[in-house]
Write a structure and sequence with these properties.
Layout lengths: L2 H17 L9 E4 L6 H10 L6 E5 L8 E5 L6 E5 L5 E5 L13 E3 L3 E3 L6 E3 L4 E3 L18 E2 L1 E4 L2 E4 L9 H5 L3 H7 L5 E10 L3 H6 L7 H4 L14 E5 L2 E7 L20 E7 L3 E5 L4 E9 L2 E13 L6 H35 L5 E4 L4 H13 L2
Antiparallel strand pairs: 1-20, 2-12, 3-4, 3-6, 4-5, 5-10, 7-8, 8-9, 11-12, 13-19, 14-15, 15-16, 16-17, 17-18, 18-19
The chain binds FE2/S2 (inorganic) cluster and fe (ii) ion.
The site of FE2/S2 (inorganic) cluster (FES) has 9 residues, from loops.
């Protein structure tokens, strides 16, 4: 984030403190409950948003060197993402060209090749067939044509995106729509992976994202966890194409009022929540980043799973540092898993019963929430 952005955002907060306001919409929004329950809509979302669009699969630091790979099965398409000898990240369908056995599971590092566990065909990290045992028994099979099926990849700002279905190249500028400046300045290429947790919930995947999009609930639901840290009922909201940025200022931000503008560090005095369209919630905390990748689960509208990935600026080298990051992780889990999600699951249960109201209401003080749900509704037409 550029210094001018630090300054501009800080000034918006100071104006809100003076005027006892927050970023607001001109009117409330009524939102149909069916967006969280309709099976047809859900199937459309799975196809249009989770297959045809590029999805953030990981940060670059998870593929640190040639041969590093991860697998991803969250979109219904089995993906194998690997860094090649040339340093380039590539994505392949995770299926052998002989009889489609999976070539890899989990994540790790291959020395030179992926060797299929079934009959030992092997493939380079660039996807080329390297060895076909008993090749004399495959007369007429063109080995040049036995490349793994490749999918478009884009890597920039320390992030890796893959389009699970289709061959169209990924254009980052079209996707990020002005967020590049913020992302470039965070230097995610220098970050280190600390921990990943998988979390399963009985909620529609969009309702999971809604959880992150307003601070109106902090004073009640998070009274003892994060409410003491943040200014109450205050957010800054900005849209970047279909992505959004929402800032929650920390109470400490008032310390900046006594310092020269050139020293204002807005990131240090806030939590910045980005929704990277369609399904990634990126939270830039003062000194670390949380990536929440959220997916529909089990092919049913009211189930979701997600990965909470914790990234830190330096590798852990002492017990003290480990205790610090563990305490951070613990606060996140107590806040979101113990406080937010039980409430969300309760709401989803009510929606599914079909007995409640047909619409819920987003207050004027919930601009990011209204924007996110509107954007999702428009995506399906
Ligand atoms: S399925 Fe891979 S070698 Fe046979
Ligand atoms: Fe919350």
């Amino acid at each position: 984030m550029r210094q001018q952005t630090h300054t501009a955002l800080s000034k918006r907060v100071f104006a809100h403190i003076r005027n006892k306001t927050t970023d607001r919409r001109p009117q409330v929004n009524h939102h149909a409950v069916s967006h969280y329950t309709c099976p047809q809509r859900f199937q459309q979302e799975r196809r249009k948003l989770f297959r045809e669009l590029p999805i953030l699969v990981t940060l670059s630091c998870q593929l640190p060197s040639p041969g590093s790979f991860i697998t991803d099965d969250n979109t219904g398409v089995p993906l194998l993402i690997v860094r090649g000898d040339d340093g380039k990240a590539r994505a392949f369908i995770n299926a052998c060209q002989h009889r489609s056995a999976r070539l890899a599971d989990g994540q790790g590092r291959v020395k030179r090749r992926f060797t299929c566990p079934y009959h030992a065909w092997s493939f380079t990290t660039a996807g080329q067939l390297a060895q076909l045992p008993h090749s004399a028994d495959f007369t007429g099979v063109d080995q040049q044509n036995c490349r793994l099926q490749e999918r478009p990849v884009a890597e920039a700002y320390g992030m890796i995106w893959v389009r699970p279905e289709g061959d169209a190249a990924i254009h980052m500028a079209d996707m990020l729509c002005g967020l590049e400046d913020d992302l470039a300045h965070f230097n995610f290429t220098d970050y280190h992976h600390y921990e990943t947790r998988r979390i399963d919930v009985a909620m529609n995947w969009k309702l999971v994202i809604d959880t992150f999009l307003e601070p109106y609930h902090f004073a009640t639901l998070h009274r003892t966890t994060v409410a003491p840290i943040f200014l109450p009922n205050m957010c800054l909201f900005d849209a970047f194409g279909r992505n959004l940025r929402e800032a929650f200022p920390r109470r400490t931000i008032t310390e900046l009022m006594d310092k020269p503008e050139a020293e204002w560090d807005f990131v240090y005095h806030s939590a910045l929540v980005y929704v990277l369209y369609p399904n990634t919630v990126f939270v830039m905390q003062a000194d670390h980043a949380e990536v929440w990748r959220i997916f529909p689960s089990k092919d049913v509208v009211d189930q979701a799973h997600m990965y909470l990935e914790f990234y830190i600026p330096e590798p852990v080298q002492s017990d003290k540092a480990k205790a610090h990051w563990d305490a951070n992780m613990d606060l996140v889990c107590r806040t979101v898993l113990d406080e937010d999600f039980p409430v969300g699951e309760g709401a989803q249960k009510g929606f599914m019963s079909g007995t409640g109201r047909s619409h819920i209401v987003f207050g004027q003080n919930e601009p990011a929430l209204a924007f996110f749900e509107e954007t999702m509704a428009q995506a399906l037409g």
